[in-house]
Specification:
The chain is mainly α. The protein has helices at residues 2-13, 18-125. Helix 1 runs antiparallel to helix 2 (18-125). The radius of gyration is 54 Å and the shape is rod-shaped. The chain starts with a helix and ends in a 13-residue tail after the last helix.
């Protein structure tokens, strides 16, 4: 409003026609209205920019947190893979030991059977040992 007053004072003293003065006032008012609209638009854009910056900050923080979590999970996965590999090797070892135990059990069973068969054959072919007499002490 001071700008309009200044224009009025300057123009009135210079002998400017009323029509030209009114046109200048209208032009000035339009410029002020446009300036106000641009200021409001600029302020709205500034608020949007601030909101985008806040959102970006939150998202970057979340990304950092998730990257740290991914690193932790990858480490856990690596440890689990190592443990899995150890268990697989242990399983192979145990399978081999089980096969060896089965083989030894079969051999022991066969040996026991053969030994029992030999004892039975000897018992059949050898005469029975005499029983000790009632008065004899061992």
């Amino acid at each position: 409003m001071r700008g309009v007053l200044a224009v009025v004072i300057v123009l009135s003293g210079c002998g400017v026609s009323r029509e030209r003065f009114d046109a200048q006032v209208i032009k000035t008012q339009r410029a002020q209205a446009q300036h106000l609209q641009e200021r409001e638009r600029s302020e709205a854009l500034r608020e949007q920019l601030l909101q985008v910056l806040r959102t970006t900050e939150v998202l970057l923080s979340e990304r950092d947190r998730l990257q740290a979590r991914v690193a932790t999970l990858e480490h856990s996965l690596s440890e689990a893979e190592d443990a899995r590999q150890e268990l697989m090797e242990l399983n192979v070892n145990l399978s081999g030991q089980r096969a060896r135990l089965s083989q030894l059990t079969e051999q022991l069973s066969s040996t026991w059977y053969d030994s029992a068969l030999d004892r039975a054959r000897r018992a059949l072919t050898e005469p029975p040992a005499p029983l000790p007499a009632a008065g004899e002490a061992n």
